[in-house]
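Quick start: what a row looks like.
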Amino acid sequence: MEILIKASKRDSSGTGASRRLRRADQVPGIVYGADQEAVSLVFDYKALYLEFRHEAFHSSILTLDLDGKKESVLLRDFQLHPVRGTIQHIDLQRVSASEKIHVKVPLHFVNAEIAPGVKTAHGVVAHIYTEVDVSCLATDLPEFIEVDLANLEAGHSVHLSEIKLPKGVEFVQLSHGEDVAVATITKPRGAKVDEAGEAAAE
């Protein structure tokens, strides 16, 4: 699904100019990369926020419509108001179809309710990571990565090496030899005490 965001070139710069834009329900931004000049942008706040609030906006290739000219970009950074939480500024990076990109992609955990560690041992799933860095071509970038917890026992964890990835995608940490755990099922409190009590009773 294409995520389209429209922008116009911004001539004015500086703190005062950005403040005036925000008061007019506009958001300042910038697009850079792909061996091209950085261009200052301005977005309509409402239209931008409608897309920004969705998870896919933060981990997908976006289509930037800059005064009628379209190009593929990634959201690289953003600033929110510390109190109101409104978008203050966004940074976009142009992407090339032939160059690999590094992007944080969200993890979607499934089948936790049928995992033996939850269903039988009454453990609790702890998410150690909710997003991970991946490397791939822009055309191979997944919207999210699914982590299946169906066979996870209490006291055990799921590591990066155990997660099935789409073709052409690799975990950056794993390529550096870091096979970290992304989720675990913690044993319920009192489990050892209960077991000891049962043994004593017998």
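That is the whole record. Helices lie at 15-23, 45-52, 116-119, 172-175, 191-201. The longest helix spans residues 191-201.
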